[in-house]
Every structure is written in structure tokens, then in C-alpha cells.
Amino acid sequence: MPPSAADSVTALAQSRRTYRDEKESKRPPLRIRSIRAYWTTFRVIGSYLWLRLRARWHSDAWIQHTLTRVHLRNARRIERTIIELQGLFIKVGQLISIMTNFLPEEFRRELEGLQDSVPPRPFKDIEARLREELGKPLDELYREIRSIIMEELDYRAEAANGARIAANFIERKDVAFPQVVEELSTTRVLVTHFEIGCKITDRAGVKKAELDRAQLARQVVELYCQQIFTDGVYHADPHPGNLLVRPSLDGGPPTIVLLDFGAVAEIPANVRQGIVELLQGALTRDTRRIVGAMKQMGFVARGANEHVFEQVIEYFHDKFQENISLDSLNLKDIKFDPQKGLESVADLRRMDISMRELSENFHIPKEIIVLERTLLLLMGLCTELDPTLNPMTVIRPYLERFVLGDEGDWSSLLMDTSKDLVLSITALPNEVRRFMRAAHAGELQIKFKGLDHSTQLMYRLGHQVIFAAVGISGAAMAVILEGRDEDQRAAWGWWTARIAGGLLMWSWWSSRNLLRKR
To answer: What pTM, to 2 d.p., does this model score?
Structure first.
């Protein structure tokens, strides 16, 4: 491209951080970075604990005023640490900055700059990279260079990702994508045309452009419904710095510009089919179908106990049906409630399911982790735009097509449900006959879940009682004998107490796994 044609082009010189780059920059070594992160975490938690201790002797007004100051101080402390540590910590900061539902407003305000104003790396590093990759001095290539530093891997792949998603919106005028200049892009340099717009959460910019924030929230949800439910490939980093908005030229809906396609995810066929099965199971309240869908999507860990897995799924399915009404759900109503989390843990404990068993039986597929992070970012973004939005009003048509197909035929779903019901009823007499035959033959067995575990625990506790009794008796005998000046026999008593104490500690240590399962 000749220099005269470069006025409309902005070079997004996004330098990939390799090991050599890390040495050249002043970012601290990995071990020091980890210590710095832990130290900041310790200081943040400690500040809230200290405030809690002091709160006993102060008024509510003082507590609220001080809490706001502590929030602000901790937000600045976290921002400084993230900027110093760079790398993935910046991504974490971007996620925190948009989680308006869960974190104080002070955190969002202080960390908002991480969305699109991360301190740049030295320009000499970027200039060296551009010269190395393109083989020409900068003044021969660009008249204007604007650098946006992001941690990505291969910018050819990023360009391909952007083109792939853009192709799915080619007939829509309310979505725009920066066009890549292929001849000036390499694996380490990405050059695109400049797209005009203001950040989607920029209240002043949106108001100046006379855009409706509630409409923007609905458009964002609809935009992602198409990507997730229809296209199967989606932009996986929707923080506000990656979404620009501008008025439409023809008076139609506002245009949303998507930037930065370094994080693009695809929903595999097994996950898509599993989601369909999951939704159908939820609609028909069929727990077994939900369990089957979870298995199909890869949520079951190797060697998992199916009984535990099914118990947990049934518990949370019942909780969801009991507590959540999707038709009246508003984004502002979605809050993180630690008390409900503790109640769920207590309920699972009463069902004889420990946290260890949960981790052993459940495995979260990486595709679901990426999707969950994307949905968290979307939820925070849309809550910022319109807290009263009920996302189900936008999602429902896409969801119906996703579950029922393009024809939206509910009869096939009802037919499948009826078929399952008929098969269950047909199989019931045969199951009853098999049960009666086993009872007549004396082959009926009743198994008590956890009885063997309880027996082992009682056996160990019995040992511990005996060891404790022997130890106490030995010590008491030694004291009595020492009072009679029978030191030799008293020594035997002390040795008996020591041995019994050692056996007691050994028995307690070896039975701690049994106690943990309780």
C-alpha cells in the first residue's frame, strides 16, 4: 500500500510478548510476581478484617464512610498491582471492572481504565518489531501509527477469527467489524481500518450521540444470542473496551463495533447437543435427562460415583425450579449471596456429600469455562447499560429455535416426552415381576449406603477410647507410685501412658479421612 493511501488506516501494532520480550521489558520474574499478587491479596483481605474488628465500637455512619474509603484504597491497590504484573492479571482486572452485580462501585470505577487504557510498552520495542516483521522503515509504511498493546498469540489467526465472525453478520447493518489490511499484517503485527465510535459504557459519549442505553443492552444480548445459539462461534472477550457504538447513518438501530478477536471460542457439537438435551430436560423436569446431558457435555469426571452425581444434579435442579422465575428475572436482581452458597454446602453435607466428593465427581470442560466467563462479562456489561432488562425476552426466540430447530415444532418435543413416558410405564410391570421373583427366591438384598463407612469409624473411635483410657490410667498410676517413692514402677506407668498416647495420635491421624467424609 503506498503511503498516500495510508491516511485512513491505523496500524494496530500489537506486539506479542515472547520470552525475549519479557526480558527486555521490566516486568518482574514469575516468582516475584506471584509473591506480589499474594501480598496484595493478603493486604486487601486484612484491611476488611481490621475494619470488621473496629466496627464494634463505631456508629453505622462511620462504618459506611470508612468502608467506602477502604473499597477505594483496595481498588487502587489492586489496579497498581495488575499494571505492574501485566499479562493475564490485566484480563482478571477487566473481568472485575465489569462485574457490577457483585462488587462495589469503587472497584468498577478504579479498574475501568484496564478495559482500554493499559499503560503502553516502550515505542522502541514496537518499532523494532514492526521493522523486523515488515522489512521497511515506519515512515515508508504509515503516516499515522496508533498502538494498542494486548497479550495475544498469532495475529493472522486473530484476523481469521474476525473475518469468520464478520461473515455471519454480513447482511446486518447494526454490527461492524474493523477491516484487516492483509498486506501489512503478519503473525505479530495486525493492521486494520479505523472504526469510529465511543466505548459502549461511556455515558457522556452515548448521551451525546443520542443513543438509548436500554436499546444497546438488548442489541448486545441479541448479538450474542446469534453467535452462541445460531452460529456456534462467538467473540469471547466482550468487556466494554472491545465494544464501540455509533449512530446509524440511515436512522436505524445504533451500530455496535466489535474489536479484538484474539479470544474467539467455538461450541463443539457434543456441547451443542448436550445443551439441547439439558434444556429439554429442564422443560420437562426430567432429572435423568439432565444428568445424561451433563455427561454428554463432559461434566462427569473419570471414576465418578454416578449416584453422587445424580444426587447433586437433582438437588440444584430443584433449587433452580424453586427459586428462579425466568419470566420475571431482571439483571439487577442477580446478586451473589454468600449465605445461599453456605446453605447449599450445608444441604449437601446433610446428604452425605462432601466438597471433596464434589471435586472428584465433577469436571468442568474448558469450553464451558470460556462460555461462563463470556456470560459473566455480558451480564456485567448489560447490567451497567440497563439494570431492568429481562434477558429472557430477547433470548427466548433464539432458545426455541436452538432446541426445536428452525421450524419451531413443539410436537416433536412432546412426542419424545410421551415416548419416554410410555416406555417407562411399559417397563414398570416387568420391573415389579423381577422384584417379586427375587423376593420369592430369597435373593432380595438390601444395602445400607454408608454402613461400612460408619462401622469403620466406630471401630477406630473404639480404639481411641481404649488408648485414651489406658494412657490416663498409666499416668494416674505413675503419679500415685511416685508419691510412694516407688520410682521404678512409676517409670513403667509413664511409659505405658506415652505408648498409649502415641497409639491414640496414630489412630486419630489415620481416621481423619473417615471423619472428613462425614
So the answer is: 0.53
